[in-house]
Request: fold
Amino acid sequence: MIDRAAPAKIRAKGVAKTFSSEGRDVVALQPVDLAVAEGEFVCILGPSGCGKSTLLRIVAGLIAPSAGSATLDGRPITGPGPERGLVFQEYALFPWLTVMQNVMYGPLVRGLGRREAERRAKTQIARVGLEGFEQHFPRQLSGGMKQRVGIARVWANQPDVMLMDEPFGALDAITRNILQRDLLKLWLEERHTVLFVTHSVDEAIFLADRVVVMSARPGRITAIVPVEAPRPRDLLAPESITLKAELTRLVEDQVMGARGEPSRLREYVN
Amino acid sequence: MAVAVQEAVRDGAPSAAPPADGVPAPSRRRWGPRRGLETLLVYLVMPVGLLALWQIASDLGWISAYLLPPPSRAATGFWEIATDGTLWLHVKASLFRSIAGFLIATSIAVPLGVLVGWSPLFRRLSHITLLLLIPIPITAWISIAIVWFGIGDASAVFLVALGAAVPILINTIHGVEWVEPIYIEAARMLGTGPRQILWRIVLPAALPNIFTGLRLGLRNSWAGLVVAEMIGAKSGVGYLIWDARLMMRSDLVIVGMMMVGVLGLVSDQTMSWLGHRLLRWHEGLSRND
Reply:
């Protein structure tokens, strides 16, 4: 489905991260290689504390790798930038700005002018279904609505790639399912490159072209599993259930400590 | 040392993330939709009841009229100086000093607090100095204020400014220093340059704390005003209280103290109203906007 010969949009080469705290070094991420193609939706799946967010934040440019390098279109990532939109689990909306002003923020701060910012904000607010809430402040919104603003705010900037750090992790199961469906629908319209961190196997199967499975700390990639079924996917279909069992076992192996035979689906082992 | 810095700044700032206004306002929700007269009566039960008890105790001779004159005597005294114009002269003098001092304090302490809160270098440079200056109570400054500024407005304005500046400074430093890093990360990911972070993110995020500082500063400034007027001025409500004692007019002492209470209440409510207007977005405030 994905043309593997196409040049990678995002590439991580030997990216590793060691944090120092109180004189002790903690390895958060062992050297990782990963390539994400243009227009591809890749989920990084792993248990808590496996370094998946660390990897994402390195691609975001918010933290520097201890070793290796991350590139976007072949150019090294050296810091945060608007060509990579980041959606936070905690939303990170600016509470002193209204929904409209939050979504206008990126275009405004980059000097695109008030009129263009308003035009983009209106479009994106409508896309995420928040018309009528333009003048609300974030504290007046539910969690799901806040994350819709978070997504609209990133899209208003028209980034090359979208980085999502467990964006639906703080939501209840029902809201979470609705947001996954809506995100998928909107993604199918434009097919941006997406790197999406999650600890939910269902979420990864529902959204991803490929699922990158990471091990518990110190983090490393243990398998990369393609999801071939056409979208929208039925999580109750037999092939989804098989895949879910396989991915669950891969993730749980990492938590419990790997035992024995390699996964049938493991196509790439680091 | 670094730990001491944070502790000291935090101790001075009762406002963590949501600014505390000191006396918590009674929750409106408990009264439900039935506001109006009924609610007003509930608010008035205590002050009216206290006044009534006080009056009755005086009438029955339980309290010496010199030690504590009854409310009726205080009311007569109030009427006396209100009608001959002296009360207004004192109130006017106090209001001028209070407003002037507060504006001076704000215009110095807010920018200074932003600088100290934002720049780790300035924080270290000013740390010991602030730790030494902050514990000196405003009353301890009165002598040097009179030496510098003489008897009159300037001394009082200086003390008011000093009294207001300390809470404003501490809360501004605290607010700027403890801005949620995630807002800065989000702003940088959206294309905010390093120079814009301060204006676009840090200042608005710190505004609730800055406002708490302004409100606490205003409250603190009344102590400076009264003591300055008692010793370093010939007018104002502080002078009214002091002078009344020398003239054995304890009824006017009560009137002067009540005036301070009223002025403090009016100014505090004005700040509170302003805060609600400016910080409509803030979670610590009422949702009924």
Q: What stands out?
A: The radius of gyration of chain A is 19 Å. The interface with chain B takes residues 60, 62, 79-82, 84-86, 88, 90, 92-98, 105-106, 109-110, 137-139, 153-154, 157 of chain A (CB under 8 Å). The CA atoms of residues 55 and 260 of chain A lie 27 Å apart.
